[in-house]
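User: Here's a chain of 271 residues. Predict its fold as tokens.
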Amino acid sequence: MRPEPLANTARLRHPLAIAAYNAVYWPYLLTSCAALFAPALALYLYSLGFDKRKKLLHAYTSLWGAHYLAWAPFAGVEVHGRERLRGGPYMFVSNHLSMVDILALFALRLPFLWVSKIENFYVPFLGWNMALNGYVPLRRGHLPSILRMLRECNRRLSEGNSLFVFPEGTRSPDGELKHFHRGAFWIAARNHVPVVPVVICGTDKVLAKRSFKIVPQMVHVEILDPVEPSTVHFDSHRLRDLVHQKMRTELARLRGEPAPTSHSERVLAAE
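Assistant: Prediction complete.
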């Protein structure tokens, strides 16, 4: 059974309580990143000879990343839809609301490789661990880097790995789903790989864009049915638009809002 539209589940409301929470949360995050990188490096070295796809390291990384939100006091991550997945590989795509989206998506406990802007790989400990995992870097707006990224994604999918992309490219400033870049859908169509839409709700309330104030509360993540590129005859433009519409509809449902109309429905209404 699908969950009902979400209510506001925040439990810390008083400004002093939130300030005290942040005074503990940020120092813990910074110090624990340094401490938890050492086991990641040890696991990377230990598994070099037998775990070429680095599943063990990614599983450890998922626990590391998810615990900052899924196990944090007064917070949590509720995931629905894992049963919709069968095997893989997949191209996962998600809406992007907040810096803590990544923490929520690690709570999926699914094997995948992030496609991420190259600046993230330079962040101490967290970025270094991304490099150990073999995540795919991208320098935005730099054509040689984009071409390398496309070749690397094709190779990783051919090896049986799933990929995860934020097709909006950046965080939404108002929580609404923005235009999707076509790259992830072109890769999926070219490789005949299903696209799995993933919808996040609530992370923008935990940590708003251009803010460093954590407001702990429950976050919800819904995994939708995989979309086969063959349903749109491997047309990456139509695949992008179909997935975008499905995610807009689901995001509205989770928020208890009216279902948005598609472009074709708006044209018919105007006539």
